């Protein structure tokens, strides 16, 4: 029996930022704009259609460098997209991230009233993201994109966040980042787990069949097809607090690293506990062909190697049947570090803002990003953990501890404080190149 034919993605019409993993190392910049004049906003879209890089350009003039442009729902309205069209977009997108705060567990210090202005407000309309292997190429990419928004008085830059790779190529908690990436049918980009069957293109790109056989696309077709949804979140990391927690709950440096691995599901080198359960294997951690090729339920159903409540097993349970159909909740995730590193060994907060700019790409905001955030990250029922939250990024309240399965007696860590605080974010639509041109040609 022959395999079903893969979707033929129109890569020359899809923004490269929708499918390509970030380069390693990397530098990145997020720019947000407000549209005050509809005519100038449309001109921005016209110019952007020539500045963004398509997914067909596997080798751009600037190497592994690209520019992406996304638009919020209020941004589409500011451009003059008719209400009849806006109503065909995902309802979570139409509400906006701030309105979804309770579902996302953005409460307390993470609640929208504490977000960094203007994130989450009606004054954020367009997001431009530039990614490059180094700061020099990033500057060149921004220079290439600048004509798209320069000298348009009706378009105002309202926010900027510069990101970069730490010298260790890790995020601020010390873990190697950017390890996992799903394979998408028709993209030509291999996934990082050779045991995972490529996902249907419609899970990530609108206008194609998804895992359920359906096709999702806002209308008209020229606007929705070949687009995607993009989630941006600025996440502040409590690095000193994280280090103190590890130190206070360990018996020494080696035990501290073991606890760090049991909380994350990987050693900080990137080596997974699934393949290196007893001790770190830095060589495995840097090997992109081996470090993510494993399953859980087949080899470690009870979680003695990789705890069922650790971060990476929650975020992607892989072959876990108790988590439902995992493939319906897969996401393209990306992270970019911002802020200065806290010097090694420092256990007190220095007051600097540091963390991760998190990005999600997918065609289903509700059953991908929001489901994972609410059901897997901030609830433990699906694996028998009751109300236990993700030990790294969950909205911990300081009342729940963390359990490490162990023979003959499990190990119980004291109550977890909150290590990651939401500083703001946006739900965006990532239009195709032809949709950018369509938006630029709108008329009242």
Automatic annotation (TrEMBL):
Molecular function terms from GO: peroxidase activity
Origin superkingdom: Bacteria
Cofactor(s) listed: heme b
InterPro entries xref list: Dimeric_a/b-barrel (IPR011008), Dyp_peroxidase (IPR006314)
Keywords assigned: Iron, Metal-binding, Oxidoreductase, Peroxidase
Family stated for the protein in its record: Belongs to the DyP-type peroxidase family.
Protein name: Dyp-type peroxidase
């Amino acid at each position: 029996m022959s395999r079903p034919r893969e979707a033929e993605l129109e890569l020359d019409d899809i923004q490269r930022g929708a499918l390509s993993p970030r380069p390693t190392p990397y530098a990145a910049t997020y720019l947000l704009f407000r549209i005050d004049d509809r005519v100038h906003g449309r001109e921005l879209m016209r110019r952007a259609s020539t500045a963004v890089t398509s997914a067909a350009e596997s080798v751009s003039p600037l190497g592994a460098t690209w520019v992406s442009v996304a638009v919020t729902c209020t941004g589409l309205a500011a451009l003059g997209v008719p209400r009849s069209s806006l109503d065909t977009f995902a309802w979570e997108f139409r509400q906006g991230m701030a309105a979804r705060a309770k579902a996302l567990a953005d409460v307390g210090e993470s609640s929208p009233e504490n977000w960094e202005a203007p994130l989450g407000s009606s004054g954020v309309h367009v997001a431009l993201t530039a990614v490059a292997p180094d700061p020099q190429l990033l500057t060149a990419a921004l220079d290439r994109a600048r004509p798209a928004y320069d000298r348009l008085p009706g378009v105002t830059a309202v926010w900027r966040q510069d990101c970069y790779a730490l010298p260790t190529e890790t995020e601020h908690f010390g873990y190697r980042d950017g390890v996992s990436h799903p394979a998408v049918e028709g993209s030509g980009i291999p996934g990082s787990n050779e045991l995972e069957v490529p996902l249907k293109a419609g899970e990530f790109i609108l206008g194609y069949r998804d895992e359920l056989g359906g096709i999702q696309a806002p209308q008209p077709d020229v606007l929705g097809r070949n687009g995607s949804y993009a989630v941006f979140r600025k996440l502040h990391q409590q690095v000193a607090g994280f280090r103190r927690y590890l130190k206070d709950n360990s018996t020494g440096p080696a035990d501290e690293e073991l606890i760090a691995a049991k909380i994350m599901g990987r050693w900080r080198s990137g080596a997974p506990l699934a393949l290196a359960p007893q001790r770190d294997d830095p060589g495995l951690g840097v090997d992109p062909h081996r470090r993510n090729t494993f399953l859980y339920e087949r080899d470690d159903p009870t979680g003695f190697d990789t705890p069922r409540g650790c971060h990476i097993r929650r975020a992607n349970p892989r072959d876990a049947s108790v988590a439902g159909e995992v493939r319906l909740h897969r996401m393209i995730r990306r992270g970019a570090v911002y802020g200065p590193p806290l010097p090694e060994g420092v256990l007190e907060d220095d007051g600097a803002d540091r963390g991760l700019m998190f990005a999600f790409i997918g065609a289903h905001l509700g059953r991908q990003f929001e489901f994972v955030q609410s059901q897997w990250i901030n609830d433990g029922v699906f694996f028998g953990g009751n109300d236990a939250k993700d030990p790294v990024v969950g909205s911990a309240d300081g009342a729940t501890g963390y359990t490490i399965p162990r023979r003959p007696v499990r190990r119980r860590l004291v109550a977890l404080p909150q290590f990651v605080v939401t500083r703001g974010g946006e739900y965006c639509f990532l239009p195709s190149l032809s949709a950018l041109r369509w938006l630029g040609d709108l008329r009242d």
